Description:
By secondary structure, the protein is mainly α. It is built from eight helices and no strands.
Amino acid sequence: xxxxxxxxxxxxxxxxxxxxxxxxxxxxxxxxxxxxxxxxxxxxxxxxxxxxxxxxxxxxxxxxxxxxxxxxxxxxxxxxxxxxxxxxxxxxxxxxxxxxxxxxxxxxxxxxxxxxxxxxxxxxxxxxxxxxxxxxxxxxxxxxxxxxxxxxxxxxxxxxxxxxxxxxxxxxxxxxxxxxxxxxxxxxxxxxxxxxxxxxxxxxxxxx
Length: 208
């Protein structure tokens, strides 16, 4: 997905920097909300920072670049310290994608404003575009309700206790299910994920 955005070396640099920003903001948001809800684990682990070195996972970043999905270092959260026992983890999990979407809105506004002062050929617009697209993809992908993605924590919060065994099995096997779906999607050329991302990207393109 993201590899298709790269046309030359300059573009590669823009994509890398945009990835660093999007992932760092995403993970920092998890840490910030967890801290606000009473759990100091992330703060004590040095994750309450925007420093990319604290948040980037080398493998997750590479996979995101090559395949259009990926991850940062998971933010440690002790759910028993959270203010809201049932919904706390879901709130913390939602923080990452929500901030990615807010970043999309912010950078779209910046793009439109700057357009009044600089020619459309200015490379700043290229960088802003990748910031928008990568935040968008990261936010959407993490809302998929399959562990270890953020959407799974939201789904589990809504499921009653009789589904605890389902939650346990999904937590164990979720990564393999996700990888299997992505491989199947590519092998069968259904490109379901690509169509989902593409629809939102087309919407952004129409705005810009």
